[in-house]
User: Fold these one by one.
Assistant:
Number 1:
Amino acid sequence: MSKAEDKIKELGLVLPAAPEPMGAYVPFAKSGKIVFVSGQLPRQDGKIICTGKVGSGVSIEKAQEAAKLCGLNALSVLKAASGDLDHIKQILRLTCWVASDASFFDQPKVANGASDLMLAVLGDAGKHSRMTTGVNVLPGDATVGVDLIAELK
Amino acid sequence: MSKAEDKIKELGLVLPAAPEPMGAYVPFAKSGKIVFVSGQLPRQDGKIICTGKVGSGVSIEKAQEAAKLCGLNALSVLKAASGDLDHIKQILRLTCWVASDASFFDQPKVANGASDLMLAVLGDAGKHSRMTTGVNVLPGDATVGVDLIAELK
Amino acid sequence: MSKAEDKIKELGLVLPAAPEPMGAYVPFAKSGKIVFVSGQLPRQDGKIICTGKVGSGVSIEKAQEAAKLCGLNALSVLKAASGDLDHIKQILRLTCWVASDASFFDQPKVANGASDLMLAVLGDAGKHSRMTTGVNVLPGDATVGVDLIAELK
């Protein structure tokens, strides 16, 4: 059992199977040690479980949980790409997309749901640069999306 | 004639000249074998030919065609960057931006217009990771934008 | 004194200290010579100084200044990452996010505020590929955001 997967268990989480793509793309692409992980939505068993916009119907807390689930799905793709999450050298870039009412400004707090998970599971390897934005709508009316770029050992 | 360009002809398409940038940037930047292609809009002969938002005025079908044209423009930039589309090893990341009414949720179907083109033209080399988002507006009121990162052989 | 910092002085600008992250992430991540710079907002002394949306309250000129400040903050992070801005080989990708009213279409003009700064400060090394988008809202109600990927010498 990998250290990272032990951490996931300690957090009371279960690493899912890597989600199926929602279109004509693949879950990840690799160039040498660099892995590009496709955008992840808050999907569980294939179903988006958090829809709607933060600031009009969805609370920050719920959106943070959704971001965490996006992050967990991204980790499942990284496991498929690396064979073992302990082989991740660094999360280089995490981009967090928050479906937002135009009057909601706390997207970074939402994104922390995904960022905190990376740090908790991967330790130093989980420290990442980040871009966070609001958008008016995401695929499937999802509340949050996360994509990332990582380097393998 | 390259295999990829043969495919483009078979699809009844014409690879345009790489579009001029719309600001103080360059069509692509390279780091070793990695090419970063600037955002492409559905421009033909310099003019954006699909404007407006999906879900309020623009149909999915029209937006898919716009995404395909964005993809074709991205291929023209990749040709300029590589000399020959057959030199593309892999499309690593495609990001698709869909100008959307906040009640439209089928962005991935729109993005498939670009993704399917990559697969049809480049085969296995066209398999890519992807992020798709809705946005409230794109430059020039374009309906779709596509940017990408690719690796050359 | 580096040539790039001389240029910054000539432009009447002051390179600030790299801004503190606004969440659970780091200002930059590196993979070999490639630096991923986290999203920068128009912050001065820690405070966002340009808020609101272009097309409803914020002028293009003001937004361009905001984009320039984002770019300056990105340069400060690049200095922290490289030790010396003259060690930058190339800005590979600049992404500019413009908080926009849905009827505003001139995002590229806004983005030029950041792009022109890169060219003025870094010369050929500042030539970059770019993606520019409108979004309905950015963290902290900022008018503009800029993130980038660069290669060091």
Number 2:
Amino acid sequence: MTTYTRFTLTRSSPSLWRVTFDNPPINLIDAMMMKELLTLLTEIERDKRVGVVLFDSADPDFFLAHYDIAGDPAELEGVETAAGRHPFTELHIRLSKSPAVTISAIRGRARGAGSEFALATDIRFASRERAVLGQFEIGVGAAPGGGALNRLSRLVGRARAFEILVSGQDFDGELAERYGYVNRAIPDEQFVDFVDAFARRVSRFDLLALADIKRFVNAATLPADESLGAEIDAFWKSAERPAFPALHRQAFKAGYSQRGPVELNLGDFVGTILADPDSYPTR
Amino acid sequence: MTTYTRFTLTRSSPSLWRVTFDNPPINLIDAMMMKELLTLLTEIERDKRVGVVLFDSADPDFFLAHYDIAGDPAELEGVETAAGRHPFTELHIRLSKSPAVTISAIRGRARGAGSEFALATDIRFASRERAVLGQFEIGVGAAPGGGALNRLSRLVGRARAFEILVSGQDFDGELAERYGYVNRAIPDEQFVDFVDAFARRVSRFDLLALADIKRFVNAATLPADESLGAEIDAFWKSAERPAFPALHRQAFKAGYSQRGPVELNLGDFVGTILADPDSYPTR
Amino acid sequence: MTTYTRFTLTRSSPSLWRVTFDNPPINLIDAMMMKELLTLLTEIERDKRVGVVLFDSADPDFFLAHYDIAGDPAELEGVETAAGRHPFTELHIRLSKSPAVTISAIRGRARGAGSEFALATDIRFASRERAVLGQFEIGVGAAPGGGALNRLSRLVGRARAFEILVSGQDFDGELAERYGYVNRAIPDEQFVDFVDAFARRVSRFDLLALADIKRFVNAATLPADESLGAEIDAFWKSAERPAFPALHRQAFKAGYSQRGPVELNLGDFVGTILADPDSYPTR
């Protein structure tokens, strides 16, 4: 039995696994979480009985805050991936293609790479009152790199994908539902019961038939692996431009990646910082 | 003039045909209905004046219940189709490509193959109070085979397609509209008038321009014929696995395919049966 | 500095341009407007600092009424386009691919080619009370030719695209939002402030990152240039059939292209005219 430090794994039944993110203070996705999620994926792929994997969070304010950009990239060295993919891209591709049905139960914030992890799962339910989704990356000088460009385009359509991506704003549960960013926003007081009943129901169905459904829907809807690879490459390239570190310096100074008002209202916050306050950007 | 036994055909005008399903007790799609629908398609394709075909039901509780799985497969032998296609796949492909605009006016239940017939028409209007749509097949051990995997993926997007397909649940008119499963849910007291006015209006427009619209929207949105063929093949393959007959035996015993509580609440019902109650399924 | 006669161009900042349509009496898209918009596109493409271009209207009843079909086609001769494209198709293709984010702020009517211009921009916000969108072309004997067939298919899905296109009806802001025809319908009293704040916010973000977003979302969502070319070709072919001039004669007689009840309620109006009142159309 593998021991995980960034989340707990509960086998509610042989066919229903619950993964509860628990990486204080705000559920950042760090290198260790990524490695552990890849290990979890291997467990899922090898198991013959898991039909449903439900992802939720121990922190009602943060589902997954975002990527831990302050972490040491060297920590990811040595992680084996197919075709030299970035581990995060690898994780998402394998998650989407796993035979199990994956569900994100989103209470609290799911932004940046946290939103992208949720987008890589099959189904997203959101707490109407507590869920906040967003791709704030434009506010710190980059396009998202973990799949949001490709997946939002297909999921919510061109126009709403543009709005989410170029505004970097927060989307509450209700608007996220209207846009198709999540399947449904459920009133928070019914949220846990609704999601649990849904997951339990699906986990009792025939696993071969569930795998058939995944195979056909995947063939009809998944972006090409290569375009996901191009996305992450573009992200790291933008990180080398001057705006990226300049904006991150200001964000960290204000409280980025810490529990507090900046992370609670990150969508609003990124609208207040400028790479170079004395001049307009040029292309 | 062909005589039909599973539905009535009314030519409200040369350019507006109404097809009213009437196959008691619950509008099952049996071999005879399939053959008659294929004959109807030939009539539509040969006619030079039909612009709109409106499908509705004589039974306010059932638009089309689902496929009559208890029927004798031999009854479909000898039905000529292109490239050895299953007659149901053939029907849907020809329906989508016919120059006439096809509209499903859904009051009552449209599940399984009944939902898939509606998905193969161009436009779906639903009674807000009376319509119930669903793909319950996962509950009887199979992925749908009549186009739902391909068509829902394109129509409602990856995440909501997964939810509909892996839950097997019923979706009422209001939720079906929010998900894009139907165009709109119309209050039942306005439903007939709304649909009739819409169909009449469209049927008076220029037929060549309507055919242009169908051609371009088809090119942009239709799934490939081969992927629809693969879907039905996967369905019949799943029917040979043990879970399929085991679940159907329990369903028939409880009232499946009969008028009564099981068929009225089939989404809930399939959540109560297990292929092998003593063990969890394996893949 | 180019002088424009069909719209005003205001540079609110180096990275935020506002284009206000102003072509009385009802903001028809005539040959001059098309030429000026192509010139504007060249300005946008050459500028290194424009991040957002916001399109709105000086007329609260008309965003862009539709194409000025009564204009002399010779006025467009000599307009240089790639690969012999129609200028309108050229305009839309270049608009979609420009590195700047384009936003339509729709108050009043956007129908036919006016709706198609809005569909070629990246984001559409609509006044809940004042916006009216539609593709009325079917009512005058043609399928739309300026991108609506391809773009609506991708944006709102097969079924709702069919409904919009074959009905030719008007869609108010609220229904346009439910269908995804616009991003959101905003209460009119908040509309200007909302759109301005959105555009200003986006215009201050890193222009290279905005261009990255456009590149990836374009790759995932844009229709092929050739299918847009086929659409306009089909339109002009339909204009040579008898129904097209017959229906336009009746429309012009009733007040088409003039300020008045026909243009205010064009969706309803086109349901009242017939190409040949004495016979049903044939295909």
Number 3:
Amino acid sequence: MDRIGVGVLGATGLVGSRIVRLLRGHPWFAVRAVSGSSRTVGKRYGDVLRDDTGIGEDALDLTVVASDPRNFDTPIILSALQAEEAESLELEFARAGHAVVSNAKSYRMAADVPLLLPEINWQHTSLIKTQQEKRGWSGLIACTPNCSTSHLVLVLAPISNEFALNAVLVTTMQAISGAGYDGVSALSITDNVIPHIGGEEEKIEAETLKILGREPAHERGSLRISATTTRVPVIDGHFESVSVEMEYPITAEEIIAAWQDWRPLERLELPTAPPQPVIYRSEPDRPQPRLDRDAGGGMSTSVGRLRKCSVLDWKFVLLGHNLVRGAAGNVILIAELLKAQGYVSG
Amino acid sequence: MDRIGVGVLGATGLVGSRIVRLLRGHPWFAVRAVSGSSRTVGKRYGDVLRDDTGIGEDALDLTVVASDPRNFDTPIILSALQAEEAESLELEFARAGHAVVSNAKSYRMAADVPLLLPEINWQHTSLIKTQQEKRGWSGLIACTPNCSTSHLVLVLAPISNEFALNAVLVTTMQAISGAGYDGVSALSITDNVIPHIGGEEEKIEAETLKILGREPAHERGSLRISATTTRVPVIDGHFESVSVEMEYPITAEEIIAAWQDWRPLERLELPTAPPQPVIYRSEPDRPQPRLDRDAGGGMSTSVGRLRKCSVLDWKFVLLGHNLVRGAAGNVILIAELLKAQGYVSG
Amino acid sequence: MDRIGVGVLGATGLVGSRIVRLLRGHPWFAVRAVSGSSRTVGKRYGDVLRDDTGIGEDALDLTVVASDPRNFDTPIILSALQAEEAESLELEFARAGHAVVSNAKSYRMAADVPLLLPEINWQHTSLIKTQQEKRGWSGLIACTPNCSTSHLVLVLAPISNEFALNAVLVTTMQAISGAGYDGVSALSITDNVIPHIGGEEEKIEAETLKILGREPAHERGSLRISATTTRVPVIDGHFESVSVEMEYPITAEEIIAAWQDWRPLERLELPTAPPQPVIYRSEPDRPQPRLDRDAGGGMSTSVGRLRKCSVLDWKFVLLGHNLVRGAAGNVILIAELLKAQGYVSG
Amino acid sequence: MDRIGVGVLGATGLVGSRIVRLLRGHPWFAVRAVSGSSRTVGKRYGDVLRDDTGIGEDALDLTVVASDPRNFDTPIILSALQAEEAESLELEFARAGHAVVSNAKSYRMAADVPLLLPEINWQHTSLIKTQQEKRGWSGLIACTPNCSTSHLVLVLAPISNEFALNAVLVTTMQAISGAGYDGVSALSITDNVIPHIGGEEEKIEAETLKILGREPAHERGSLRISATTTRVPVIDGHFESVSVEMEYPITAEEIIAAWQDWRPLERLELPTAPPQPVIYRSEPDRPQPRLDRDAGGGMSTSVGRLRKCSVLDWKFVLLGHNLVRGAAGNVILIAELLKAQGYVSG
């Protein structure tokens, strides 16, 4: 089978270059075009990267182009554009017939755009039909959730499905790579915690409801979510401390089994789907960012320290790679889902 | 007035040496004796310190002695001993007639030992009479709370007093100095978060109830507390993310006023009491460990980001110096309280 | 005596705000005006600072103005402008009659501008007369050296004076604050060393020769200097590993005595001059950035590990505060020298 | 071919567990036994590891034994013991007929023990014959150099071979993992540089001469080496700033070619030998620990910033993985060399 061509928008940034790196040797997709800022257009991709670790020679030799549909003849567009650029450009690509999978926040909450964690809501892709009719285009836009939301929802979904989840209280400790190459200055974060990440708490609270909605385009009702987001001196890996309130009684064994046994995508055999999306660690001091962020190739979320919460019902901590499942890896997994479901073809 | 002699037990460690440093130029107290491990006994104090920053020449020239009452003729003993040593030695010092203020956990929860944050429960020193009668000694033992508990309770007290507090859910991000000089290896914490600190969650949950008890020796009832404690790559300053549930409605303005206007110790004029024990910061990204840990000379707790919590009622973050208010500074403040109340004299 | 008015250019940056902080309570000078970028002009100084630690209330209440001589009626201008701005603006201020002491590199190597470490070459201020005649202005420009040069030269001078110094080989490990607030991204320096700081090696090699010149405007001849400069994950304090070759034999005792006994400025009684400019530490593992950067209020350089070098003659390590002696503090010390020598008056 | 059994001594430490990890899937060798301290003897290996990342299931299921030859029937013993234990135990294993490759310093400088960087001095294994005759054993001891020495010598060797090297002046910035799991406390190294590593400078100076000796057991004469060793807040990867003096003129092009073209082991096809032992990076800001430590699977040394030195002749910086080439990886490479040369058989 010929591999399907993929174009990567914003390919010189931290998420964009991670997409290219993760696609090295991909069985279905091949990166055929990369876009970057005007400063980089016309240059060899490998020459404008800050870190070319793990990127294939073929990709390094591509010439950077502008983010314009005329420069791309690939069926699939993976977008790591910043929100301000994404807002108009992703529309242009969808109008030009491309299947756009976006890491930007611009269309995540649009009623006709699926916000996907494939293990949880693969059926939300049915929104695409509505989207194409309503917008009158043959392309499509699908979005990956915010990086700290992705890991939280992966852990909530297995227990939310079988038992009713009433409330979630979460404090995050997020890695510096979540803000991009220059998003956090060394002087601000060394020996420090920054108790604020603009817009992040609102994203967690809103996106979680959309992803857990039982019907596409219907938000999960009756679930209260409260988030506090902070930045800590960690390179990669978002850590979260979570307490939950359940509608029905549930035991620790049931929760752990729900996580460990959860294999919702198994039959689709998507190349980037990890064998086990949620991994429970029974050690008292796990998960930890440096030891567990690469679990499942960065696509698994690790959970630990499940115990009774004397204020809500249960509490635990979780950890996942913000650049892989939290961004680049989930963008690729969505593209694989779209391919498996027939929304894109080579 | 002649200054009252003070002996410091465990004076070569991080908390012990901070006590000595904070007592430099103290108007009431003077360090007259310091104890250390057998390895250091007989040596000049300044020669066995890992870091002598800010310690006075008089103290540096003291000769380290063993932690034995026969080596101490000071009315006041400030103990920075580890729990295993503190358990027997602090009894010996109290029996020998010393007023012992301890940083160890050994006697914090004993029914006849006051666990003191002077601003909150100065009247709990009335337990000392019971203690002296029951134990048959002329000395006394009083304890300072665990480092992460101290800052949490300082922030809870002003709103707990005026409005009923029902529940507290807290996630801490604690500094490495909280574990002593060699408590955390660089390899374990660099680029990492460790989601477990042995015994810490239990201490927060138990000590908070004792400190907030309306009567000495009666635990505050009907308050549920749930803590998750973690270690982050920060040198000094424990950061905490807190959500609270109140019995009665309360506005943000009332909460902030309760914190900002709280001056419970003013009339006692204790030298180490900060002018403002709780400081509210209105900036969106404060408090931060590196910028705020030295507020009030390390004796004030800084709070910020007060906002509605959609699961409980209110949420906020707080920050305080774990070695000062969380240990050495509060030990000194307790000694000052005991002096002001007549429990020790020169 | 009325304090002399001082204006600070670029007062919102890391060096500028440190100048204002160090001038709090200064016996001779008072900050009367502060300039900042167009984004900050017209705002209260305290409201645009990223970190207001240690800055006096009077200064916090100043209104930020543009860097234009018409906004300043202070005899002294302390400039923390970036080089590109400094180049034209500092000339304007000197032409308008101000005594400008600059932290920028723009005029450091100009033949008629003194490049001053007051302890070493206070007599180089005699260049000012030439400068005023040649340039036809009543103001003046004097410069502080590059931050890593300052500490190196302070340590070389005492041994260079008495014994001939032939060659210096230095490797620096520089702190992130040397690059300003946003000069180093957290992602680039965490768990890393960056082996390149643009232009820094050339500055060390050139400025050292000018400062050590026996006559003003005559470079020290016959001294070879070779520098490698790197950035390490340290907040404040530049560390340097140095080997030197001497013309004449010299013993370790003579070197240490030359450093410890060096008090060249004593009789001038400049308020910011540290009692001991160079401090030798005999411990095997000192100096260290976190323990020694504040020695002498940040104005002293600490040296340690003096021992034979089997390639050159002697080797040692040194450490000093890059923002204090390496920038803001030395700017103030130069202003004090100019006042003491009669180049500025109130 | 059946794989040759390997026993790993001190397998629970940082170097020992890295040896086991690197041997996963090794084509020639299989780990059959692991030893640890008395605390771990009798337990499952996987249960006593602090970090089991990358270690194969077969190894994780081994039972830890004491470091006694009676517990080992493997021809090859790879020793990650501490020096104090290694001194007696390695002799016992050699006497019992094992080929011992050691990471400890105990026998590195012994006249009849080869100290090996296989690319440089593979012929030094001829010492083994002398060793066996003199010591009267059928086993053998061979040693890997100190971690900072290994990378330095790999970079010196190609230019030392073709052009005479007169003098080397090096300042190291070493990673915390070089001191083992608990060797460096977080409080001592965070935001800091420690300018002393006990015994390290002496090791660099002595071991370099032995490795570069033209004849086994004859030290390279007439080469002066001066080292300053420091610890910096980096997890893995020793960085070194080097200046060299040459006997004969040499151009930058010749030096770079000597490094880039150096393939001394090619014909032996040792599995762990990297394709290119020394990699020259032409970017102005490379190598860096985080980006380059894994070059060649951690077995290559990266060099950069080659330029004229105004005191000696040339200067450059280099970087290599201290746990791989600097310890565990080179131990394995030596074992492969011994196998290829017929000193051990299965």
Number 4:
Amino acid sequence: MAQDGQRLDVVIPGVEASSYPITIGHGTLSGVWGEILQTWPKHNPFVVTDSELVKAGHLQTLVGAEKVPTFTIDPAGEVSKHIQTVVAIVERMEKECLGRDSIIVALGGGTVGDIAGFAAAIFKRGVPVIQIPTTTVAQADSSVGGKTGVDSSVSKNAFGAFWQPAAVYIDVATLTTLDDRQYRAGLIESVKHAAIMDAEYFGFFETNIDAILNKDMAVLEQIAATNCRIKADVVQQDPTEKNMRRILNYGHTIGHAVESASGFELLHGESVAIGMIAAGKLEKALGLADDDRLERITNLLVKLGMPIRIPADITKEKIIDLLRTDKKAVGKWPRFVLLESLGAALCRDGQWAHEVSQDMVERCLDELY
Amino acid sequence: MAQDGQRLDVVIPGVEASSYPITIGHGTLSGVWGEILQTWPKHNPFVVTDSELVKAGHLQTLVGAEKVPTFTIDPAGEVSKHIQTVVAIVERMEKECLGRDSIIVALGGGTVGDIAGFAAAIFKRGVPVIQIPTTTVAQADSSVGGKTGVDSSVSKNAFGAFWQPAAVYIDVATLTTLDDRQYRAGLIESVKHAAIMDAEYFGFFETNIDAILNKDMAVLEQIAATNCRIKADVVQQDPTEKNMRRILNYGHTIGHAVESASGFELLHGESVAIGMIAAGKLEKALGLADDDRLERITNLLVKLGMPIRIPADITKEKIIDLLRTDKKAVGKWPRFVLLESLGAALCRDGQWAHEVSQDMVERCLDELY
């Protein structure tokens, strides 16, 4: 594929300034700044990134010799995804005399995108944000859809807003500096997209697994483009997550509980991998699937180096407790997204999340130790 | 007018869940809670109010014997309109185990409405807010339109969002506990509405000035209803303030500068009164108005006890300096909203804010000492 890569237009119904382009390529990062200045000539750019990205040289690649006001989140990662980081960003912007004509450029993984996107949503009642995701998770997932959020001192994602980006630039070459465990775990959101929406895409993963593990640029571009198409398709149908968008939660209900129970020792993607296996067990128990389907999913996750069993030190009781406090829980017990077939989420009576008894969930969890 | 009062429906184009009712009456506050519980039976209410409202007995009137989780802003007023108050509200809601099915009920003046509205906009990516404005300013202005915002440690309204209320309940009887200076200054937003949009309404003010100063309930209800109709009309035409909504800024450009230069010794309405006189001088200087128009405006403002001259200790230079840093300034010198006639803002070439030279502004300011 050419360096100028692919371009996709996302339109969110009912949202003002609702169309935004996603540009995908490899080795394209150095050209992005020029394009930003050309596309938004009347806006004053402000970059939000993190210390890891600076260390990897990506900030330098983006802005080149230009002196651009920048906020570097330090330390990088979840620990900084806090409302006080957003307060610090806004106050820095004010000290740089930036106003309503600012545009925030978010360079980094999901955490940077969440923090910078939320800062953009609430700075002076909202300024545009450009997302430049640099991890497998962020490129697959968090840069499209407009969900932003940060933690309070009490809980995760207590603060947030729906804020669609003005544009998304994906350079898959930024993935080469990502550590291998993060890289592989980040691909699980893509496997999830395939499982719920696109059987052919699932086959693409199976066929190209070696190229994927070797970070083949052409294959990664194709993955990025397919992810964005699937995510955009779902988000366009349900921009504020009233119903159908819940299918993106496949594998996440049990996945979140396992991630939290591990004290975040397990990565998000690793936990979702376990959650997808658990969902597969539920589908079998409910008579929705044969053995073959779960086997294909399990085989792919194993090749990607994912855990497929719950670590012994995480008790079933702990997971059940956490499921009861799930943020999407209705009547204190969550509903579960399930597959109709590989490549299609199950919809019954217009609902995309389904009741499953606690008893059945417990029996499926028992099989995962 | 009957206790069940008047009802107005506001529809904001392009905004989801965009229609909301405004109910106006006197002595109606004690019935509002029952209506909230009936209209939003699946939501968990959380009240945000301030210590002055509690002292005046309005919180008690609203919730009666019910035990409702409440955040009381203390001290009341602008000093608490800070991002850290919003953080405290959100963390209190989390500690009360409130989630996405919360509804925030804002009982108070403009500051309470701004703080609570912004908290609603960003709690868990947004929950509904019900506005119960209790001051002349808030009833005329800040409860309709969806503008919310709080200050940072660097500047005013650094944080904010457009967040339309789910409903607005106005009980004009709450105005009887307001101190007289606040009451009168708060009416200036209503005079502004009349000046920019409704000549007949301006006449109503002139005719009923004694009843207004005596807080006649029927007249106050009529003022509240007319304000909401005018404000809703403007907001519906331009929900995110791209153009026409700027007319609501009439008198505010110079008004804000005077208010700020006084160190907030002058109330907002008092400053806007001076700003309206200044706008009238500009209109005369530009050949847009005869003497009679400014005289009528001046007479009404005087009867309402407003200052019509700039206090001697506020220098013209200070005002000019502040105008340069106006948040709406384009190219470092703001544009001004002007009147075409009493009851109609001036629109030229599709623009509602107009270029006026610094020289002319200075000459008009000179006349105001």
